[in-house]
Amino acid sequence: MQDLLTMLNALHRPRLMMRAARIGAQDYRRAMHLPRLLGYGVLPRHGAALMKLIEIEAELEDQRTLGDANYSLVRHVDVLIAMVGEAREFKAAQPVAS
To answer: Global pTM?
Structure first.
């Protein structure tokens, strides 16, 4: 699962979008935000949630770069906020290497 953090570090998105995501992630509440993005039901673990969010974000990035009329900047930033929030919680849950 450590590869998840490597995958996230390799993402390159517009600076303003990522700045908005980092600011929004300060108020990220998993129980409130994730169901809206992933569907209602039992919340997945941090790693599984991150994988799903990465898939959703990749589709949104494709729409953005292709100029798709169905693209939603608000949804894209919302997904990025959840990704940053989940990555922070995922990283905090990892055992400290000694």
So the answer is: 0.86
